[in-house]
UniProtKB/TrEMBL annotation:
InterPro entries: F-box-like_dom_sf, F-box_dom, FBXO4. This is F-box domain-containing protein. The lineage of its organism: Eukaryota, Viridiplantae, Streptophyta, Embryophyta, Tracheophyta. Residues 11-56 form the F-box domain. It holds the Pfam family F-box-like. GO terms for biological process: protein polyubiquitination; SCF-dependent proteasomal ubiquitin-dependent protein catabolic process. SUPFAM superfamilies: F-box domain (SSF81383). One of its GO terms (cellular component) is SCF ubiquitin ligase complex.
């Protein structure tokens, strides 16, 4: 019985530097999805250089402080921890608005306080708003707060912010 030859051109046979270069050009969700494809892609997608770039792009102000800790924890762990911290900070704002809505309405001062609280939390960016505020599960007020914060504090163009919301709700 003759064995068939090994398939040529497998992704696992890619040189490590090329796999890292590809993974380094992806966004968070794509890195995670690609890492689930095979052991070799998982190794490339878990690389510190991939997560360092993602961290620095998403939270540039926090990156300087994180650099020292990265030697101990690694950039992926730092990214996950920072993502969780952002989630907690933003969920506090969501809970505040939710408790204010228990009466069936929201006073303008509560709305403005929610925006101010987001602005006081260091390094909340547009991606954080997308992850934690733009959701079908939230009230329209929460989504509106995310939109208002993105436009007023992050200076995201109105057209881009609205497009992201439309895409998020179409596919999300």
């Amino acid at each position: 019985m003759e064995l068939s030859p090994a398939p040529k051109g497998r992704w696992a046979d890619l040189p490590e530097d090329i796999a890292l270069a590809l993974a380094s050009r992806l966004q968070e969700a794509d890195v995670c999805a690609l890492g689930g494809c095979s052991r070799s892609w998982r190794a490339a997608c878990d690389a510190d250089c991939v997560w360092e770039r993602l961290f620095r792009c998403r939270w540039p102000a926090a990156a300087a402080e994180a650099a020292a800790a990265s030697r101990v924890q690694g950039w992926k762990a730092l990214y996950i921890n920072q993502h969780r911290r952002m989630g907690v900070a933003i969920s506090n704002v969501v809970e505040f608005v939710g408790s204010s809505l228990n009466n069936g309405w929201l006073e303008s001062e509560c709305y403005l306080k929610a925006i101010a609280d987001l602005a006081l939390t260091a390094d909340i960016g547009f991606l954080d708003v997308q992850f934690f505020l733009f959701s079908r599960n939230h009230s329209a007020i929460i989504n509106l707060i995310g939109l208002h914060y993105s436009i007023a504090s992050l200076h995201v163009p109105v057209s881009k912010a609205l497009l992201v919301i439309l895409l998020h709700f179409s596919y999300g």
